[in-house]
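ok so for the tutorial part 2 we go from a plain amino acid sequence to predicted structure tokens. step 1 is just haveing the sequence, like this:
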Amino acid sequence: MIKRLIDKQINSVTYAAVLVALSSLISRFLGIFRDRILAGEFGAGDTLDIYYAAFRIPDLIFNLLVLGALSAGFIPIFAGLLKNPDDSKDNPQAWEFSNLVVTALGIGLIVVSTLAMIFTAPIMKVIAPGFDPERRALTIGLTRVMFLSPFFLGISSILGGILQSFKRFFIYSLAPIMYNLGIIIGALYFVPRWGLRGLAWGVVLGAAVHMLVQLPAAAALGFRLRPKLNFKDLYLRRLGRLMVPRTMSLAIAQIDLSVSTSIASTLLAGSLAIFNFANNLQSFAIGIFGISFATAVFPALSATARDPVKFVENFSYTLRQILFFIVPSTVLLLVLRAQIIRVVLGTGQFNWEDTVLTVRTLGFFALSLFAQATIPLLTRMFYARENSKTPFYIGLVSVAADIALALWLSKKMGVAGLALAFSIANIINFILLWLVLRIDLGHLDEEKIIFSVAKFSIAGLAAGLAAQQMKSVVWPLIDMSRLWGVFAQGAAAGLIGLLVYFAVCALLRSEEFFQFFGGIRRRLPFAKVRAEDHIEARGI
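step 2 — the prediction. this is what the tokens look like for a chain of 540 residues:
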């Protein structure tokens, strides 16, 4: 059973997205458990500010050198070199290309990380100008340990790209779970022994396991590590050309995050921790729905990039599926954010003042959930057509807006102002990507999308009202000073909200509602599947 699941090709976008989303759900729950441990142990104060500031440069290196190559071109080029995707061993050119990328990327990560270790001290003066010398020294120590993680994550990401190209999503989807488990082990077992530095070693452990879990599956498909470097290779140079604008796009996004980190370090102690806690909570829905669907559909987008009709059909179907889940997620996150934060983070050193600040910050983040969840799909539309320049230029505009707004709003609103600036910038990014893509393709099936979104919005409004009313009904019946009471109120209100949302979608005959639940029903062990029922594939 397990071997079948590991070896099975997954050709349905929805099925692949559900699998990736399920693993993302598990990983995100582990991430919540991780944040609860950190909040309870350290509270929103100097210690976690140091921890999150230490992430900044290693994360920047990973995003620039790894995601730039992977998201911009590795999958389309590797998939194009697969002569026979059904016979994994009959693809020598694809395996040679993967070894060239692994070698070049590995060397690049080692060189850049080593240089960054040497110059960590002056870099931290820019990243965390609000830290005193003692906090900055601790941040430098943690950062140097974390510089080991980009190498493991880099190799792992290439392995993941191989698995995605062969449509083996099961093992690929396990890697993030392993990463969070490593960090949790660091928090629970390394910190008592090594102090704050144990958190950094937990990150390194998570990155190593992220790679190791994917290596056997890639090897089973035919991958063999044979270090080889040839900068004259046609396909490696093609990847390099695609990577440059994508890397520049990621660079400005990382500069944006670095500026937010820098500003947060000058605000009240704990502001950086609160910003990250709120961002992690709002990223829950984005990771499960936005990134999962965008990841699952990317091979199909790459394959149909030369067929405008199927290309737009794949886009429209995936976008509507994302928004079907994101609309209720946004509504319920806004209505229940106080309950969510108290249940997830309200323990130990995380006090009521921390809760209030996180509630405000999370509310402003939630305003742009629809944009954040669909931007990964919109950018992949460009990457599938080997156009990574346009997202860069658009990203430049949105990041400039974010930095300008963050500098202004943080003075008036504190850390919540950073979240509001972030949301406005993402909405600008979404609008510009959409407009340029529409001009390029002529249309994006807007009529169908608008019709579907109108139904989601009506259902979402009903869900929000029902959840708010349920909070009032439950409140007198339970002890709200206890964790179980807050959980019971939030769970009851959330469940009622979801039921109302699905009920209204059904009454409005939402196509996405019936596609999703029809797809689940057809995969139940006792379900009878008719041969002519191809609605879920949608031509993909």
